[in-house]
Design brief:
Oligomer: single chain
Largest sheet: 5 strands, mixed
Helix content: 25-40%
Number of domains: 1
Shape: globular
Structural class: alpha/beta
Order of helices and strands: HHEHEEHEEH
Distance between the termini: 24 Å
Number of helices: 5
Number of strands: 5
Length: 176
């Protein structure tokens, strides 16, 4: 869901937009408190979210035609096809708000870490399938490419090297 449709501010009211932006966190994104107040409609767009280690893939020459710069913390690629019809970059929402369970992702990461570091204190995934994270990312629209989902216009790609740090800003109270 684009942040302008979240009920967090009135995109047509300059003062409302300014109040919304004044409360952004130190990485320039809406705060956790703001994001937790987002109102998701039943008709919210369902998206596929993938996490790629873009630098490693580039080093290994996977996706040689994907020439976009590396993502910074809080940014995500979204297929150009998902732009609203009346897109105006000056008025458009700058963020997409994602709502998902990170359970499978964190299970994979913790089991990989534990397998690769048998001498270290093991990590545990304290999430359950019921824990939900709501987090924003700054939209970077890019052209058709397998990394941003040719067949999925609302596909969201987050860089692996930024994903956990971004996720840590928006953990639910149950796992904080």
């Amino acid at each position: 869901m684009l942040d302008g449709a979240s009920g967090l501010y009135d995109p047509e009211d300059t003062e409302s937009v300014e109040r919304y932006q004044e409360r952004f966190n130190k990485i320039g994104l809406p705060s956790r408190e703001q994001i937790m107040a987002a109102k998701f409609e039943q008709s919210s767009v369902k998206s596929q979210v993938t996490i790629h280690d873009i630098q490693r893939e580039r080093h290994n020459e996977i996706g040689r035609n994907f020439t976009h710069p590396p993502l910074k913390l809080g940014e995500c690629f979204i297929n150009e096809k998902s732009k609203p019809k009346n897109y105006d970059p000056l008025k458009a929402s700058k963020f997409v708000i994602l709502k998902f369970s990170p359970y499978e992702l964190l299970n994979q990461i913790t089991s990989d870490y534990n397998r690769m570091n048998p001498e270290a204190r093991p990590l545990f995934n304290n999430f359950t399938e019921l824990d939900i994270v709501v987090m924003p990312c700054k939209v970077i629209y890019v052209d058709d490419s397998p990394k941003v989902g040719q067949n999925y216009p609302h596909h969201v790609t987050i860089d692996y090297n930024q994903a956990l740090k971004l996720l840590s800003y928006y953990l639910p109270n149950s796992v904080d």
